[in-house]
Amino acid sequence: MIRHTVVFRLRHAQGSAEEGDFLQAAKGLADIPGVEKFERLREVSPKNDYRFGFSMEFADQAAYSVYNDHPAHAAFVRDRWIPEVEAFLEIDYAPLD
Fold first, then answer.
1. Which of 9, 34, 44, 89 is the most exposed place for a label (fewest CB within 10 A)?
2. CA–CA distance, 97 with 87 (Å, rounded to integer)
3. pTM, two decimal places
4. Exposed (0-12), middle (13-18) or buried (19+): which is 84, by Cβ within 10 Å?
5. DSSP class per residue in 3-37
6. In what side-by-side order are the strands of the sheet with 36-42?
7. Mean pLDDT throughout 75-90?
């Protein structure tokens, strides 16, 4: 299993329609084959300046690769992520046991 996570800060004003539209559009990532347990998350810790996170799981590396190479993912990255995300940190985990 691979857990793909990303925390990020948008270029949009907090609470703006643009922010809401981006977060709504991201729900489409859950429809890509292989995506399991997709979550959109709001950061609540004062220890960093990221505001949101996405988390999802994949059965294995092959499923993650299908997602990563899928046209819907590529389009989201190109059309939404790159122009609208100001900063991010991506971490992919695999269980130790």
1. 44
2. 32
3. 0.92
4. middle
5. EEEEEEEESSPTT-HHHHHHHHHHGGGGGSTT-EE
6. 36-42, 52-58, 2-10, 85-93
7. 98
Strands 85-93 and 2-10: antiparallel
Compute, in degrees rounded to 10, the torsion defined by CA atoms 46, 55, 3, 45: 10
18-45 pLDDT tens trace = 999 999 999 999 999 999 999 999 999 9
**What CATH number is associated with residue 82?**
3.30.70.100
Taking the C-alpha atoms of residue 31 and residue 23, their distance in angstroms, rounded to an integer, is 15
The tally of domains found in the chain comes to 1
CB contact at 8 A, 30 and 24 = no
